[in-house]
Amino acid sequence: MSEIDEVKQKTDIVDVIGQSVTLTKSGRNFRALCPFHSETAPSFYVFPERQSWHCFGACNTGGDVFTFVMKQQGIEFGEALRLLAERTGVILPTRVVPDARKDERERLYQVNAAAATYFHEQLVSSPGAARARDYLLRRGFTSETAAAFQLGYGPNSWEALKQHLTEIGYSEKELLDGGLLVENDDGSTRDRFRNRLMFPIHDARSHTTGFGARVLDDSLPKYTNSPQTLVFDKSGTLYAIDLAAPSIRKQDRTVLVEGYMDVITAHQNGFTNVVASMGTSITERQVTTLKKLSRNIILALDADAAGKEAMRRCVDYENTLDTEVQVMLLPSGNDPDDVIQENPTTWRDLVEQAVPVLDYAFGMASTGLDFTRASDKSRVTDELLPLIARIKDSIRRDHYLTKLAILTGIRYNVLETAMQDRVVKSEPRKASRKSDAKPTTAILSRPVEEQCLSLLLQHPELKDYSEELLPEYFQNSQNREIFVTWKQSADLESLKERLDPAMWEQVDSLVSQELFTDKLEQRFPDYVRRLREDYHREIKSKEKESNIDLTRLQEQGLDSNTQLLEIFNQKARTNRSARDGSGTNT
Ligand SMILES: [Zn+2]
After folding, report:
1. Neighbours of ion ligand 1 (CB under 5 A)
2. pLDDT tens for each residue of 193-215
3. Domain 232-361 belongs to what architecture?
Protein backbone atom coordinates (compact mmCIF):
# COMPACT_ATOMS: atom_id res chain seq x y z
CA MET A 1 0.00 0.00 0.00
CA SER A 2 1.37 3.41 -0.92
CA GLU A 3 1.70 6.19 1.64
CA ILE A 4 -1.22 7.94 0.00
CA ASP A 5 -3.45 4.92 0.46
CA GLU A 6 -2.26 4.67 4.04
CA VAL A 7 -3.20 8.29 4.71
CA LYS A 8 -6.57 7.61 3.20
CA GLN A 9 -7.13 4.49 5.21
CA LYS A 10 -6.21 6.17 8.47
CA THR A 11 -8.45 9.14 7.77
CA ASP A 12 -12.14 9.16 8.45
CA ILE A 13 -13.94 11.49 6.11
CA VAL A 14 -16.69 12.08 8.69
CA ASP A 15 -14.12 13.33 11.21
CA VAL A 16 -12.48 15.61 8.71
CA ILE A 17 -15.63 17.13 7.25
CA GLY A 18 -17.35 17.16 10.63
CA GLN A 19 -14.64 19.45 11.91
CA SER A 20 -15.90 22.35 9.88
CA VAL A 21 -19.37 21.34 8.77
CA THR A 22 -22.29 20.57 11.04
CA LEU A 23 -23.38 17.11 9.91
CA THR A 24 -26.73 15.57 10.64
CA LYS A 25 -27.19 11.83 10.62
CA SER A 26 -29.38 10.64 7.79
CA GLY A 27 -29.70 6.89 7.67
CA ARG A 28 -26.24 5.40 7.21
CA ASN A 29 -24.97 8.73 5.95
CA PHE A 30 -24.73 12.34 6.98
CA ARG A 31 -26.10 15.45 5.43
CA ALA A 32 -25.47 19.16 5.81
CA LEU A 33 -25.91 22.52 4.22
CA CYS A 34 -23.31 22.57 1.49
CA PRO A 35 -20.20 24.45 2.60
CA PHE A 36 -19.43 25.36 -0.99
CA HIS A 37 -22.63 27.04 -2.09
CA SER A 38 -25.35 28.85 -0.26
CA GLU A 39 -28.57 26.95 0.30
CA THR A 40 -31.42 26.66 2.75
CA ALA A 41 -32.09 22.93 2.52
CA PRO A 42 -29.23 20.45 2.87
CA SER A 43 -28.06 18.81 -0.35
CA PHE A 44 -24.54 17.98 0.81
CA TYR A 45 -24.02 14.34 1.80
CA VAL A 46 -21.19 12.40 3.37
CA PHE A 47 -21.04 8.65 2.82
CA PRO A 48 -18.95 7.00 5.54
CA GLU A 49 -18.93 3.58 3.93
CA ARG A 50 -17.69 4.92 0.64
CA GLN A 51 -15.54 7.52 2.37
CA SER A 52 -16.86 10.09 -0.05
CA TRP A 53 -19.02 13.18 -0.21
CA HIS A 54 -21.32 14.68 -2.77
CA CYS A 55 -23.26 17.90 -3.18
CA PHE A 56 -26.46 17.22 -5.08
CA GLY A 57 -27.21 20.93 -5.20
CA ALA A 58 -25.68 23.69 -7.27
CA CYS A 59 -22.17 22.25 -7.03
CA ASN A 60 -23.19 18.81 -8.22
CA THR A 61 -19.78 17.56 -7.41
CA GLY A 62 -18.11 15.38 -4.88
CA GLY A 63 -15.16 13.19 -4.21
CA ASP A 64 -13.09 11.81 -1.43
CA VAL A 65 -11.49 13.39 1.58
CA PHE A 66 -8.63 14.87 -0.44
CA THR A 67 -11.02 16.61 -2.82
CA PHE A 68 -12.90 18.02 0.12
CA VAL A 69 -9.83 19.46 1.82
CA MET A 70 -8.54 20.84 -1.49
CA LYS A 71 -11.81 22.55 -2.24
CA GLN A 72 -12.40 23.79 1.25
CA GLN A 73 -8.98 25.26 1.79
CA GLY A 74 -8.28 26.15 -1.81
CA ILE A 75 -5.09 24.14 -1.90
CA GLU A 76 -3.38 21.69 -4.23
CA PHE A 77 -3.59 17.95 -3.91
CA GLY A 78 -0.03 17.73 -2.58
CA GLU A 79 -0.79 20.19 0.20
CA ALA A 80 -3.99 18.42 1.15
CA LEU A 81 -2.10 15.17 1.20
CA ARG A 82 0.57 16.54 3.50
CA LEU A 83 -2.04 18.07 5.77
CA LEU A 84 -3.87 14.78 6.17
CA ALA A 85 -0.62 12.86 6.44
CA GLU A 86 0.39 15.02 9.37
CA ARG A 87 -2.99 14.37 10.96
CA THR A 88 -2.58 10.64 10.61
CA GLY A 89 1.11 10.46 11.40
CA VAL A 90 2.06 8.96 8.04
CA ILE A 91 5.53 9.97 6.87
CA LEU A 92 5.54 10.92 3.20
CA PRO A 93 8.59 10.78 0.98
CA THR A 94 10.10 14.22 0.71
CA ARG A 95 11.41 15.81 -2.40
CA VAL A 96 14.58 14.12 -3.44
CA VAL A 97 15.32 16.72 -6.08
CA PRO A 98 16.70 19.94 -4.67
CA ASP A 99 13.94 22.47 -4.16
CA ALA A 100 13.99 24.35 -7.44
CA ARG A 101 12.96 27.58 -5.80
CA LYS A 102 15.19 27.31 -2.77
CA ASP A 103 17.80 29.71 -4.15
CA GLU A 104 15.10 32.12 -5.16
CA ARG A 105 13.63 32.01 -1.68
CA GLU A 106 17.02 32.50 -0.09
CA ARG A 107 17.57 35.55 -2.27
CA LEU A 108 14.22 37.06 -1.23
CA TYR A 109 15.07 36.59 2.45
CA GLN A 110 18.31 38.40 1.77
CA VAL A 111 16.78 41.30 -0.09
CA ASN A 112 14.18 41.77 2.66
CA ALA A 113 16.89 41.59 5.32
CA ALA A 114 18.93 44.19 3.43
CA ALA A 115 15.86 46.41 3.27
CA ALA A 116 15.29 45.98 7.02
CA THR A 117 18.86 47.04 7.73
CA TYR A 118 18.46 50.05 5.48
CA PHE A 119 15.15 51.10 7.09
CA HIS A 120 16.62 50.71 10.56
CA GLU A 121 19.64 52.87 9.68
CA GLN A 122 17.27 55.49 8.35
CA LEU A 123 15.30 55.47 11.58
CA VAL A 124 18.38 55.81 13.71
CA SER A 125 20.21 58.51 11.80
CA SER A 126 18.27 60.10 8.95
CA PRO A 127 17.00 63.66 9.54
CA GLY A 128 13.87 62.71 7.60
CA ALA A 129 12.98 60.14 10.25
CA ALA A 130 12.55 62.70 13.05
CA ARG A 131 8.82 62.23 13.07
CA ALA A 132 9.12 58.46 13.29
CA ARG A 133 11.56 58.73 16.18
CA ASP A 134 9.20 61.14 17.95
CA TYR A 135 6.37 58.73 17.49
CA LEU A 136 8.30 55.86 19.04
CA LEU A 137 9.36 58.05 21.94
CA ARG A 138 5.79 59.05 22.57
CA ARG A 139 4.80 55.40 22.60
CA GLY A 140 7.44 54.86 25.21
CA PHE A 141 9.70 52.58 23.17
CA THR A 142 13.34 52.51 24.13
CA SER A 143 16.17 52.43 21.62
CA GLU A 144 17.00 48.90 22.78
CA THR A 145 13.47 47.85 21.85
CA ALA A 146 13.73 49.58 18.49
CA ALA A 147 16.96 47.68 17.88
CA ALA A 148 15.62 44.33 19.07
CA PHE A 149 12.65 44.57 16.73
CA GLN A 150 14.79 46.27 14.10
CA LEU A 151 12.17 48.98 13.71
CA GLY A 152 12.77 51.22 10.75
CA TYR A 153 11.75 54.15 8.67
CA GLY A 154 10.87 54.03 4.97
CA PRO A 155 12.02 57.40 3.57
CA ASN A 156 9.61 59.76 1.88
CA SER A 157 10.95 59.00 -1.58
CA TRP A 158 9.88 57.06 -4.66
CA GLU A 159 13.20 55.34 -5.10
CA ALA A 160 15.53 55.68 -2.12
CA LEU A 161 15.26 52.00 -1.26
CA LYS A 162 15.47 50.87 -4.86
CA GLN A 163 18.58 52.94 -5.40
CA HIS A 164 20.27 51.64 -2.29
CA LEU A 165 19.49 47.98 -2.89
CA THR A 166 20.41 47.99 -6.57
CA GLU A 167 23.69 49.68 -5.66
CA ILE A 168 24.55 46.83 -3.33
CA GLY A 169 23.78 44.23 -5.96
CA TYR A 170 20.08 43.30 -5.97
CA SER A 171 18.16 43.36 -9.22
CA GLU A 172 14.98 45.30 -9.73
CA LYS A 173 13.21 41.99 -10.31
CA GLU A 174 14.33 40.66 -6.94
CA LEU A 175 13.00 43.80 -5.29
CA LEU A 176 9.70 43.39 -7.10
CA ASP A 177 9.49 39.69 -6.23
CA GLY A 178 10.29 40.52 -2.62
CA GLY A 179 7.35 42.92 -2.49
CA LEU A 180 9.54 45.98 -1.90
CA LEU A 181 8.62 47.75 -5.13
CA VAL A 182 5.34 48.46 -6.83
CA GLU A 183 5.04 48.34 -10.60
CA ASN A 184 3.52 51.41 -12.24
CA ASP A 185 1.14 51.18 -15.17
CA ASP A 186 3.90 52.10 -17.59
CA GLY A 187 6.10 49.27 -16.32
CA SER A 188 8.42 51.46 -14.26
CA THR A 189 8.70 50.82 -10.53
CA ARG A 190 8.66 52.76 -7.26
CA ASP A 191 9.27 52.06 -3.59
CA ARG A 192 6.28 50.47 -1.92
CA PHE A 193 6.79 51.81 1.61
CA ARG A 194 7.20 55.57 1.74
CA ASN A 195 7.22 57.73 4.85
CA ARG A 196 6.28 54.78 7.00
CA LEU A 197 7.32 53.31 10.29
CA MET A 198 8.58 49.86 9.36
CA PHE A 199 8.16 46.57 11.23
CA PRO A 200 10.27 43.79 9.71
CA ILE A 201 8.55 40.42 9.90
CA HIS A 202 10.52 37.24 10.48
CA ASP A 203 9.64 33.59 10.34
CA ALA A 204 10.42 31.16 13.14
CA ARG A 205 13.94 30.68 11.77
CA SER A 206 14.55 34.45 11.80
CA HIS A 207 14.44 34.88 8.02
CA THR A 208 13.16 38.33 7.09
CA THR A 209 10.06 37.56 5.06
CA GLY A 210 8.31 40.91 4.75
CA PHE A 211 7.18 44.09 6.44
CA GLY A 212 4.36 45.72 8.27
CA ALA A 213 4.21 49.46 7.78
CA ARG A 214 2.43 52.19 9.68
CA VAL A 215 1.61 55.71 8.51
CA LEU A 216 2.91 58.58 10.63
CA ASP A 217 -0.13 60.77 10.22
CA ASP A 218 -3.86 60.17 10.34
CA SER A 219 -4.22 58.85 6.82
CA LEU A 220 -5.77 55.48 6.13
CA PRO A 221 -5.17 52.61 6.07
CA LYS A 222 -3.09 52.93 9.17
CA TYR A 223 -1.23 49.70 8.48
CA THR A 224 -0.14 47.94 5.31
CA ASN A 225 1.84 44.75 4.77
CA SER A 226 4.12 43.31 2.18
CA PRO A 227 2.08 41.63 -0.52
CA GLN A 228 2.03 37.86 -0.81
CA THR A 229 5.41 36.73 -2.14
CA LEU A 230 7.29 33.48 -2.44
CA VAL A 231 8.45 33.97 1.15
CA PHE A 232 5.67 36.07 2.69
CA ASP A 233 2.22 34.71 3.36
CA LYS A 234 0.17 36.62 5.87
CA SER A 235 -1.93 33.62 6.78
CA GLY A 236 1.08 31.64 7.95
CA THR A 237 2.86 34.48 9.71
CA LEU A 238 3.07 35.29 13.40
CA TYR A 239 4.72 38.58 14.27
CA ALA A 240 7.71 38.22 16.61
CA ILE A 241 7.58 34.44 16.61
CA ASP A 242 11.38 34.29 16.39
CA LEU A 243 11.83 36.51 19.44
CA ALA A 244 9.04 34.90 21.43
CA ALA A 245 9.79 31.24 20.75
CA PRO A 246 12.26 30.69 23.65
CA SER A 247 9.84 32.19 26.19
CA ILE A 248 6.87 30.33 24.79
CA ARG A 249 8.77 27.08 25.21
CA LYS A 250 9.96 27.98 28.67
CA GLN A 251 6.61 29.20 29.97
CA ASP A 252 4.74 26.61 27.94
CA ARG A 253 2.23 29.27 26.99
CA THR A 254 1.62 31.67 24.11
CA VAL A 255 -0.39 34.86 24.36
CA LEU A 256 -1.81 35.85 21.02
CA VAL A 257 -2.62 39.50 20.31
CA GLU A 258 -3.47 41.39 17.14
CA GLY A 259 -1.09 44.31 16.69
CA TYR A 260 2.62 44.98 16.23
CA MET A 261 2.49 47.66 18.92
CA ASP A 262 0.87 45.26 21.37
CA VAL A 263 3.68 42.77 20.88
CA ILE A 264 6.44 45.33 21.21
CA THR A 265 5.00 46.89 24.36
CA ALA A 266 4.50 43.45 25.88
CA HIS A 267 8.08 42.40 25.17
CA GLN A 268 9.51 45.67 26.45
CA ASN A 269 7.68 45.02 29.71
CA GLY A 270 9.03 41.52 30.03
CA PHE A 271 6.06 39.61 28.61
CA THR A 272 8.11 37.91 25.95
CA ASN A 273 5.74 35.05 25.16
CA VAL A 274 3.47 37.36 23.15
CA VAL A 275 3.05 37.13 19.37
CA ALA A 276 0.56 38.69 16.98
CA SER A 277 -1.61 37.12 14.33
CA MET A 278 -1.62 39.17 11.17
CA GLY A 279 -5.26 40.18 11.28
CA THR A 280 -8.32 39.36 13.25
CA SER A 281 -8.68 35.69 12.54
CA ILE A 282 -6.17 33.02 13.34
CA THR A 283 -5.36 30.46 10.71
CA GLU A 284 -4.73 26.77 10.94
CA ARG A 285 -1.14 27.31 9.79
CA GLN A 286 -0.50 29.72 12.63
CA VAL A 287 -1.92 27.25 15.10
CA THR A 288 0.31 24.54 13.66
CA THR A 289 3.37 26.73 14.17
CA LEU A 290 2.41 27.55 17.75
CA LYS A 291 1.60 23.96 18.54
CA LYS A 292 5.23 23.05 17.98
CA LEU A 293 6.22 25.39 20.80
CA SER A 294 3.39 24.95 23.30
CA ARG A 295 -0.10 23.59 23.30
CA ASN A 296 -1.36 26.33 25.58
CA ILE A 297 -2.73 29.29 23.73
CA ILE A 298 -4.31 32.33 25.29
CA LEU A 299 -6.19 34.74 23.09
CA ALA A 300 -6.23 38.32 24.26
CA LEU A 301 -9.62 39.60 23.17
CA ASP A 302 -11.35 42.89 23.50
CA ALA A 303 -14.46 42.21 25.58
CA ASP A 304 -16.64 43.64 22.81
CA ALA A 305 -14.98 42.01 19.87
CA ALA A 306 -15.05 38.37 20.89
CA GLY A 307 -17.64 37.05 18.50
CA LYS A 308 -19.47 33.84 17.88
CA GLU A 309 -17.32 33.05 14.89
CA ALA A 310 -14.26 33.32 17.09
CA MET A 311 -15.82 30.81 19.47
CA ARG A 312 -16.57 28.36 16.73
CA ARG A 313 -13.04 28.60 15.43
CA CYS A 314 -11.55 28.24 18.85
CA VAL A 315 -13.18 24.87 19.25
CA ASP A 316 -11.60 23.86 15.95
CA TYR A 317 -8.20 24.97 17.19
CA GLU A 318 -8.76 22.98 20.31
CA ASN A 319 -9.51 19.92 18.27
CA THR A 320 -6.41 20.45 16.17
CA LEU A 321 -4.25 21.16 19.17
CA ASP A 322 -5.75 18.56 21.46
CA THR A 323 -6.00 21.13 24.17
CA GLU A 324 -7.98 24.01 25.51
CA VAL A 325 -7.74 27.48 24.07
CA GLN A 326 -8.11 30.13 26.72
CA VAL A 327 -9.45 33.62 26.46
CA MET A 328 -8.27 36.62 28.41
CA LEU A 329 -10.62 39.55 28.34
CA LEU A 330 -9.33 43.06 28.03
CA PRO A 331 -11.35 45.94 29.42
CA SER A 332 -13.72 47.06 26.70
CA GLY A 333 -12.10 49.35 24.14
CA ASN A 334 -8.57 48.61 25.31
CA ASP A 335 -5.67 47.19 23.33
CA PRO A 336 -3.08 45.06 25.07
CA ASP A 337 -0.78 48.02 24.44
CA ASP A 338 -3.05 50.31 26.51
CA VAL A 339 -3.43 47.81 29.31
CA ILE A 340 0.30 47.17 29.69
CA GLN A 341 1.27 50.83 29.36
CA GLU A 342 -1.15 51.69 32.10
CA ASN A 343 -0.10 48.99 34.49
CA PRO A 344 1.85 45.84 33.64
CA THR A 345 0.47 44.10 36.71
CA THR A 346 -3.04 44.28 35.25
CA TRP A 347 -1.78 42.37 32.24
CA ARG A 348 -0.20 39.71 34.40
CA ASP A 349 -3.47 39.32 36.32
CA LEU A 350 -5.56 39.12 33.17
CA VAL A 351 -3.30 36.38 31.80
CA GLU A 352 -3.71 34.45 35.03
CA GLN A 353 -7.49 34.90 34.91
CA ALA A 354 -7.82 33.55 31.39
CA VAL A 355 -10.68 31.08 31.05
CA PRO A 356 -11.27 28.21 28.66
CA VAL A 357 -12.95 29.53 25.56
CA LEU A 358 -16.09 27.50 26.17
CA ASP A 359 -16.55 28.81 29.68
CA TYR A 360 -16.35 32.21 28.15
CA ALA A 361 -18.92 31.26 25.52
CA PHE A 362 -21.24 30.08 28.28
CA GLY A 363 -20.97 33.43 29.96
CA MET A 364 -21.63 35.30 26.74
CA ALA A 365 -24.57 33.18 25.67
CA SER A 366 -26.36 33.25 28.98
CA THR A 367 -26.00 36.92 29.84
CA GLY A 368 -29.40 38.52 30.40
CA LEU A 369 -31.38 35.30 29.90
CA ASP A 370 -33.96 33.90 32.28
CA PHE A 371 -33.88 30.12 32.43
CA THR A 372 -37.29 29.77 33.93
CA ARG A 373 -38.51 30.66 30.44
CA ALA A 374 -38.61 27.97 27.78
CA SER A 375 -37.68 30.38 24.99
CA ASP A 376 -34.51 31.44 26.77
CA LYS A 377 -33.62 27.81 27.36
CA SER A 378 -33.92 27.15 23.63
CA ARG A 379 -31.91 30.21 22.82
CA VAL A 380 -28.92 29.32 24.92
CA THR A 381 -29.10 25.69 23.84
CA ASP A 382 -29.21 26.65 20.17
CA GLU A 383 -26.12 28.67 20.66
CA LEU A 384 -24.03 26.37 22.80
CA LEU A 385 -25.00 22.89 21.71
CA PRO A 386 -23.31 23.14 18.29
CA LEU A 387 -20.14 24.32 20.00
CA ILE A 388 -20.21 21.50 22.51
CA ALA A 389 -20.86 18.96 19.81
CA ARG A 390 -17.70 20.01 18.02
CA ILE A 391 -15.49 19.09 20.95
CA LYS A 392 -13.61 15.95 20.03
CA ASP A 393 -12.52 14.93 23.47
CA SER A 394 -15.44 13.01 24.96
CA ILE A 395 -14.62 13.89 28.56
CA ARG A 396 -14.51 17.58 27.90
CA ARG A 397 -17.65 17.32 25.80
CA ASP A 398 -19.41 15.64 28.66
CA HIS A 399 -18.16 18.27 31.07
CA TYR A 400 -19.75 21.06 29.07
CA LEU A 401 -22.94 19.18 28.39
CA THR A 402 -23.33 18.71 32.14
CA LYS A 403 -22.60 22.36 32.65
CA LEU A 404 -25.31 23.26 30.16
CA ALA A 405 -27.76 20.94 31.88
CA ILE A 406 -27.08 22.57 35.24
CA LEU A 407 -27.25 26.07 33.80
CA THR A 408 -30.57 25.61 32.05
CA GLY A 409 -32.22 22.95 34.17
CA ILE A 410 -32.76 20.83 31.06
CA ARG A 411 -32.22 17.14 31.76
CA TYR A 412 -28.83 15.82 30.63
CA ASN A 413 -30.17 13.01 28.48
CA VAL A 414 -32.53 15.38 26.70
CA LEU A 415 -29.60 17.60 25.79
CA GLU A 416 -27.55 14.63 24.75
CA THR A 417 -30.24 13.37 22.42
CA ALA A 418 -30.72 16.84 21.01
CA MET A 419 -27.04 17.04 20.30
CA GLN A 420 -26.88 13.64 18.66
CA ASP A 421 -29.87 14.43 16.51
CA ARG A 422 -28.30 17.56 15.22
CA VAL A 423 -24.70 16.76 14.74
CA VAL A 424 -22.13 14.10 14.36
CA LYS A 425 -20.98 12.76 17.58
CA SER A 426 -17.25 13.03 17.16
CA GLU A 427 -15.79 10.30 19.29
CA PRO A 428 -12.02 10.29 19.58
CA ARG A 429 -10.87 8.82 16.33
CA LYS A 430 -9.00 5.83 17.62
CA ALA A 431 -11.82 4.44 19.68
CA SER A 432 -14.72 5.07 17.39
CA ARG A 433 -13.99 3.70 13.98
CA LYS A 434 -12.48 0.37 14.74
CA SER A 435 -15.71 -1.51 14.70
CA ASP A 436 -16.90 0.14 11.51
CA ALA A 437 -16.26 -2.15 8.62
CA LYS A 438 -14.75 0.36 6.29
CA PRO A 439 -14.60 -1.10 2.83
CA THR A 440 -11.34 -0.63 1.06
CA THR A 441 -12.93 -0.28 -2.35
CA ALA A 442 -12.89 3.47 -2.09
CA ILE A 443 -9.22 3.40 -1.28
CA LEU A 444 -7.81 0.92 -3.68
CA SER A 445 -8.11 1.80 -7.25
CA ARG A 446 -10.16 -0.14 -9.76
CA PRO A 447 -8.28 -1.97 -12.52
CA VAL A 448 -10.18 -0.20 -15.28
CA GLU A 449 -9.20 3.16 -13.83
CA GLU A 450 -5.54 2.23 -13.71
CA GLN A 451 -5.54 0.68 -17.16
CA CYS A 452 -7.10 3.73 -18.66
CA LEU A 453 -4.62 6.06 -17.01
CA SER A 454 -1.75 3.79 -17.83
CA LEU A 455 -2.76 3.80 -21.47
CA LEU A 456 -2.80 7.58 -21.48
CA LEU A 457 0.63 7.88 -19.93
CA GLN A 458 2.14 5.35 -22.30
CA HIS A 459 0.52 6.75 -25.42
CA PRO A 460 0.75 10.53 -25.49
CA GLU A 461 -1.07 10.55 -28.82
CA LEU A 462 -4.26 9.69 -26.91
CA LYS A 463 -4.30 13.09 -25.27
CA ASP A 464 -6.35 14.44 -28.15
CA TYR A 465 -9.00 11.81 -27.50
CA SER A 466 -9.22 12.39 -23.79
CA GLU A 467 -11.67 15.27 -23.91
CA GLU A 468 -14.55 13.11 -22.77
CA LEU A 469 -12.67 11.70 -19.86
CA LEU A 470 -13.58 13.82 -16.85
CA PRO A 471 -11.49 14.02 -13.68
CA GLU A 472 -14.42 12.96 -11.51
CA TYR A 473 -14.57 9.62 -13.28
CA PHE A 474 -11.50 8.66 -11.28
CA GLN A 475 -12.58 7.46 -7.86
CA ASN A 476 -9.04 7.17 -6.61
CA SER A 477 -7.88 10.69 -5.91
CA GLN A 478 -4.27 9.87 -6.63
CA ASN A 479 -5.20 8.72 -10.11
CA ARG A 480 -7.40 11.75 -10.53
CA GLU A 481 -4.58 14.06 -9.56
CA ILE A 482 -2.19 12.34 -11.94
CA PHE A 483 -4.75 12.61 -14.73
CA VAL A 484 -5.44 16.31 -14.13
CA THR A 485 -1.75 17.12 -13.94
CA TRP A 486 -0.98 15.01 -17.00
CA LYS A 487 -3.46 17.08 -19.00
CA GLN A 488 -1.44 20.17 -18.16
CA SER A 489 1.95 18.60 -18.76
CA ALA A 490 3.86 18.33 -21.98
CA ASP A 491 5.51 15.01 -21.20
CA LEU A 492 6.20 12.47 -18.48
CA GLU A 493 9.15 14.38 -17.15
CA SER A 494 7.22 17.57 -16.60
CA LEU A 495 4.33 15.54 -15.19
CA LYS A 496 6.58 14.21 -12.46
CA GLU A 497 8.05 17.61 -11.84
CA ARG A 498 4.60 18.99 -11.14
CA LEU A 499 3.47 16.11 -8.97
CA ASP A 500 4.18 15.67 -5.30
CA PRO A 501 6.96 13.08 -4.91
CA ALA A 502 4.57 10.93 -2.93
CA MET A 503 2.88 10.15 -6.26
CA TRP A 504 5.94 9.24 -8.29
CA GLU A 505 5.72 5.61 -7.31
CA GLN A 506 2.24 5.40 -8.74
CA VAL A 507 3.32 7.10 -11.98
CA ASP A 508 6.21 4.67 -12.36
CA SER A 509 3.91 1.75 -11.82
CA LEU A 510 1.40 3.06 -14.36
CA VAL A 511 4.07 3.66 -16.94
CA SER A 512 5.46 0.15 -16.61
CA GLN A 513 2.14 -1.69 -16.72
CA GLU A 514 1.91 -4.15 -19.58
CA LEU A 515 -1.10 -3.39 -21.68
CA PHE A 516 -2.79 -4.63 -24.78
CA THR A 517 -2.06 -1.92 -27.24
CA ASP A 518 -3.80 -3.17 -30.33
CA LYS A 519 -6.81 -1.23 -31.57
CA LEU A 520 -6.10 1.66 -29.27
CA GLU A 521 -8.66 3.80 -31.06
CA GLN A 522 -11.33 1.40 -29.85
CA ARG A 523 -9.85 0.32 -26.58
CA PHE A 524 -9.43 3.78 -25.16
CA PRO A 525 -12.97 5.09 -25.79
CA ASP A 526 -14.17 1.84 -24.33
CA TYR A 527 -12.32 2.53 -21.08
CA VAL A 528 -13.72 6.02 -20.98
CA ARG A 529 -17.23 4.71 -21.49
CA ARG A 530 -16.84 2.19 -18.68
CA LEU A 531 -15.50 4.82 -16.32
CA ARG A 532 -18.35 7.15 -17.20
CA GLU A 533 -20.93 4.45 -16.62
CA ASP A 534 -19.41 3.52 -13.29
CA TYR A 535 -19.43 7.14 -12.31
CA HIS A 536 -23.10 7.58 -13.14
CA ARG A 537 -24.00 4.39 -11.38
CA GLU A 538 -22.15 5.60 -8.31
CA ILE A 539 -23.98 8.95 -8.34
CA LYS A 540 -27.31 7.27 -8.76
CA SER A 541 -26.73 4.92 -5.93
CA LYS A 542 -25.58 7.77 -3.72
CA GLU A 543 -28.65 9.70 -4.69
CA LYS A 544 -30.81 6.75 -3.82
CA GLU A 545 -29.05 6.26 -0.52
CA SER A 546 -29.36 9.87 0.45
CA ASN A 547 -33.01 9.89 -0.51
CA ILE A 548 -32.69 13.44 -1.63
CA ASP A 549 -35.56 15.25 -3.24
CA LEU A 550 -34.03 16.15 -6.55
CA THR A 551 -37.25 17.59 -7.94
CA ARG A 552 -37.20 20.18 -5.26
CA LEU A 553 -33.60 21.01 -6.02
CA GLN A 554 -34.49 21.30 -9.66
CA GLU A 555 -37.19 23.79 -8.82
CA GLN A 556 -34.64 25.84 -6.98
CA GLY A 557 -33.08 26.51 -10.35
CA LEU A 558 -30.17 24.21 -10.73
CA ASP A 559 -27.68 24.64 -13.45
CA SER A 560 -28.23 22.48 -16.46
CA ASN A 561 -25.70 19.84 -15.69
CA THR A 562 -26.51 17.02 -18.00
CA GLN A 563 -25.75 14.19 -15.64
CA LEU A 564 -28.00 15.59 -13.00
CA LEU A 565 -30.72 16.33 -15.48
CA GLU A 566 -30.56 12.75 -16.53
CA ILE A 567 -31.19 11.74 -12.95
CA PHE A 568 -33.99 14.27 -12.64
CA ASN A 569 -35.71 12.98 -15.71
CA GLN A 570 -35.44 9.46 -14.57
CA LYS A 571 -36.73 10.40 -11.16
CA ALA A 572 -39.60 12.28 -12.75
CA ARG A 573 -40.43 9.24 -14.84
CA THR A 574 -40.36 7.01 -11.77
CA ASN A 575 -42.56 9.44 -9.89
CA ARG A 576 -44.98 9.67 -12.75
CA SER A 577 -45.30 5.93 -13.15
CA ALA A 578 -45.67 5.58 -9.39
CA ARG A 579 -48.51 8.07 -9.42
CA ASP A 580 -50.07 6.47 -12.46
CA GLY A 581 -49.89 3.13 -10.75
CA SER A 582 -51.54 4.34 -7.59
CA GLY A 583 -54.33 6.00 -9.54
CA THR A 584 -53.83 9.48 -8.20
CA ASN A 585 -52.84 10.87 -11.54
CA THR A 586 -54.46 14.21 -12.25
ZN1 LIG B 1 -22.94 22.54 -3.05
Report:
1. 34, 36-37, 55, 57, 59
2. 999 999 999 998 889 999 999 99
3. 3-Layer(aba) Sandwich (3.40)
